[in-house]
Design goal:
Structural class: alpha+beta
Largest sheet: 4 strands, antiparallel
Strand order of the largest sheet: 5-6-7-8
Oligomer: single chain
Radius of gyration: 62 Å
Strand content: 15-25%
Order of helices and strands: EEEEHEEEEH
Length: about 220
C-alpha cells in the first residue's frame, strides 16, 4: 500500500516519496513529513566550533597556570637561596666578631695578669733589698750592702728567681743569683743565696772588724 502525504501549501494528496507537489509545485525538501526539515545537522558545525573554542580556552588557561606555578617555584627557590646566603653571611660575621671579642678579652686578661705580676715582682724586689743587705752584713759579716734586686722569672708556689747587686763604699761590687719567696702568711719575703753566690760575696768583700761593727 502506497504511503501518501499532503502538500502543506495546497493540501493536495501526493506520494510520500514525492519531492514536489504535482498540483502547486511546492518543494517538499524543506519539510520532513509535512514539517520543516531538522536543521540540527547544520547547526552541529557551529556547536563543534564552539566546543573547540572552549577546549582551546581551557588548554590555554591550564598552560598559564602551569607556567605561573613554575615561575612561583623558581621565585621561592631564589628567595630561599638568597635568604640562606644572608643567614650564612651573618653567622660567619657573628663568628668572626665573637673570635675578635674573645681574642680581645684574652689579650686584656693576659695584660691584666702581667701587670699584676709586674706589680708583685716590683714589690718583692723592693722588699728583698733590705733582706739581702741584712744577710750580707749580719749573717755573712761582710762590709757591703745590696743596691738592687731584679726579679727575672717566676718558679710558682710564690717563688721567684733573680739577682742582687751588692757593693761597698770602696767601689767593690758583684752580682749574685737569688731566690725570693713571697711569704704571705708573714707578710714578708724570704731570700736564698746559693753556695756559689756566698763564695762570690766572701771573695769580693772583706769582713767587719768585731771592734768596729756593732751588731
Amino acid at each position: 500500500m502506497d504511503e501518501f502525504k499532503f502538500c502543506p501549501k495546497c493540501g493536495a494528496k501526493v506520494k510520500a516519496t514525492a519531492k514536489f507537489c504535482p498540483k502547486c509545485g511546492f518543494a517538499f525538501a524543506q519539510f520532513n513529513g509535512g514539517a520543516p526539515e531538522d536543521n540540527s545537522n547544520q547547526s552541529q558545525p557551529v556547536n563543534s566550533g564552539s566546543s573547540n573554542g572552549g577546549s582551546w580556552f581551557s588548554n590555554h588557561h591550564h598552560r598559564n597556570w602551569v607556567i605561573g606555578g613554575i615561575l612561583g617555584v623558581i621565585l621561592v627557590i631564589v628567595a630561599v637561596t638568597v635568604a640562606s646566603s644572608i643567614i650564612t653571611s651573618q653567622q660567619t660575621q657573628a663568628k668572626k666578631d665573637a673570635m675578635i671579642q674573645s681574642s680581645a678579652l684574652k689579650a686584656s686578661a693576659k695584660k691584666e695578669k702581667q701587670a699584676k705580676l709586674n706589680k708583685t715582682e716590683k714589690h718583692l724586689s723592693n722588699e728583698a733589698v733590705s733582706v739581702v743587705t741584712n744577710m750580707v752584713q749580719n749573717d755573712m759579716d761582710l762590709d757591703a750592702s745590696c743596691d738592687d734586686v731584679t726579679i727575672t722569672s717566676s718558679y710558682g708556689d710564690n717563688q721567684y728567681g733573680g739577682y742582687a747587686d751588692v757593693s761597698n763604699d770602696d767601689g767593690d761590687q758583684t752580682t749574685v743569683d737569688v731566690t725570693v719567696t713571697n711569704v704571705k702568711y708573714e707578710d714578708t719575703v724570704s731570700v736564698e743565696i746559693d753556695s756559689d753566690g756566698t763564695d762570690k760575696l766572701n771573695d769580693t768583700f772583706y769582713s767587719y772588724d768585731d771592734d768596729d761593727y756593732d751588731y
